[in-house]
Amino acid sequence: MGVAMKRRPSSEVTAAWIRLMRIRGRVLDAVELDLKKAGFPPLAWYDALLELSRAPSGEMRPVELEKQMLIPQYSTSRLIERLVDEGLAVRRECKIDKRGQFVEITEAGRELQKKMWSAYSAAIEKHVGSKLSDADAVRLCGLLDRLGCSCDEAQAGVASDGAPAR
Fold first, then answer.
1. Which residue segments constitute the domains of the chain, with CATH numbers given?
2. Where are the beta strands (DSSP E) in 7-145?
3. What's the rounded Cα separation, in Å, for the pair 129 and 150?
4. What is the pLDDT of residues 11-52, one digit of tens each?
5. What is the CA radius of gyration of the chain?
6. Is the pTM of this model over 0.85?
7. Beta strand 101-105 pairing with 59-60
8. Please, what is the Cα angle at 59 between 156 and 39, to 5 degrees?
């Protein structure tokens, strides 16, 4: 197996872990509910459309899309199928490797992603921004960075589509 741990987490570290896991689920659930109330599809759709819109030529291989997504997507092929069925993306054969394929965002997909951002950004503000000052957010990013999460990209600003840089 692996190297045996020499010490166990303190009760404080364990409590932090529990809070981190609980709040992640609660905030994601609340954001999903806000999107649903606004008449939008799930957050994973926004996430996939955002990544496709940021890709060169608006296209990615499915495996690249899965790696880039902010929210883990265990059934990326099913998500892509839904996006294609709704006319938000199209599948294309790779010209170089005929076995490979790309997923490309459509104009309808770009429009939906931009519309969803208004509800998504409001949900981020409601469930996170309204509870933290900017200084708190910077401190939280610093703590998360120590755990291996990089908030440096997010601090670089906001993309032209209004979506947060990652």
1. 18-131 (1.10.10.10)
2. 59-60, 89-93, 101-105
3. 18
4. 999 999 999 999 999 999 999 999 999 999 999 999 999 999
5. 18
6. no
7. antiparallel
8. 75
